[in-house]
Amino acid sequence: MESWTSLWADQVAADVVRAPLSGSQAVDVAIVGAGYTGLWTALALLRADPALRVLVIERETVGFGASGRNGGWCVGELAGGLHGAIRTHGRDAGIRLTRSIMETVDEIGRTLAEEQIDADFTKGGVIRLARTTAQLDRQREEAELFESCGFSDEVSLLDPTAATERLAAPDTLGGLHYRPCARVHPSKLVHGLATAVERRGGTIVEHTAVTEIRPGGGIRPGGAKPTVVTDRGVVTADVIVRATEGYTRDLPGLGRSLVPLYSLMVATEPLPAELWDEIGLRDRETFCDDRRMVIYGQRTADERIAFGGRSAGYGFGSRIDPSMERGVATHDRIVATLRQLLPMLGDAAITHWWGGVLGVPRDWRPSVGFDGATGLAWAGGYVGEGVAAANLAGRTLADLITGAATDLTSLPWVGHRSRRWEPEPLRWVGINGSVRLAALADRTEARSASGRPSRLGAVIDRLTH
Fold this sequence. Notes:
This protein has helices at residues 7-11, 36-48, 81-89, 91-114, 133-148, 160-166, 186-199, 273-279, 328-341, 386-402, 426-447, 456-464; strands at 25-32, 54-57, 73-75, 126-130, 155-158, 174-178, 181-183, 203-205, 210-214, 227-230, 233-242, 259-268, 286-289, 295-299, 305-309, 350-360, 367-371, 376-380. By secondary structure, it is α/β, with parallel strands linked by helices. The chain is built from twelve helices and 18 strands. A hairpin with a 4-residue loop joins β17 (367-371) and β18.
């Protein structure tokens, strides 16, 4: 039976009914958004200071957004990778930020064990296949950069035989094994975090729409406190954390800060053991190839393939519409890509089709920040790389809020500001033009006899940075 509900939601029914906000109140820290960023921040704060009054406010339900719908890649990488981090923050700072996000994968594993959260966490790394000469050349350049920056233990190139043994896709010319990544079940993770937050004394309210976040005098003695205006009351706090990712566009004055970009997914029926023997992924690696139109997949704990891609594009005016999550034509392209990548799937049934939005800043670089003068904090803009990054962001925000001077608070993404997106229709033209150019670049490279990268890549870089 086919379902338009995500596989993750079908497998994890929320067993806690959380009430909405019951009138105005005062707390120490109010967090807007009950996804990974908001919940990791709440958990880090409560682990640091159990006496804090922490309130998490969610418009829908815990994990409603990307945190409950993603591909389950807990990958130690930020959007733009090592090259992007160096280009944005400088070589030494970019290396330090990259090492921090790599180490975050093991930190998440430790925390899940301590908090007794079973999220199907399995650290097998990412297998990134190269199936065109251009992809192979890009991987070699990337591996050289990682080695020159001291990351040779985390990244290794694979020859065609080794890559195919990992994942038996046709036309494989080589590959790259990126070790700092774990497969997780997104919904088990987000609901487990919510339970941990409540067990440690935090409060989560659902079905409470935030209509405005008002700055205040922050943590200065005698300063006016910031407030969260909701449809069910006003919350006053010492600090307010905005953790709204792709839904940031709904808040006054922030409509051009992050744009929501759709990514769509499918899941197969559980596959038999003999088929898995043919496919590979014996270490539960996540997988993709290095085309520009991003694809991503995992072998789930119940032996399915969950697979997605970012070809759905962008809705005019930063539109978020459930009908866009059921783009039959786009889902069909994703299924066709999966069957082309793994033809041994044959007629294996697709049981789930779903989608959701991720948050994209103008320079495609995530950020974390806290302004003590206003009492406002934020984190996000992960561009689909948020499962691990949200943990690093949450721990960083907790240190900033509590005033702890740590290695995290001096990371270069702290205080980073992306410029605003262009007004419409320039935004719609630029983003969707980039999506189409990426697809065209992939087709050009696949057909190229010379193996040279498509020149369209440079055009895409200019449009998206």
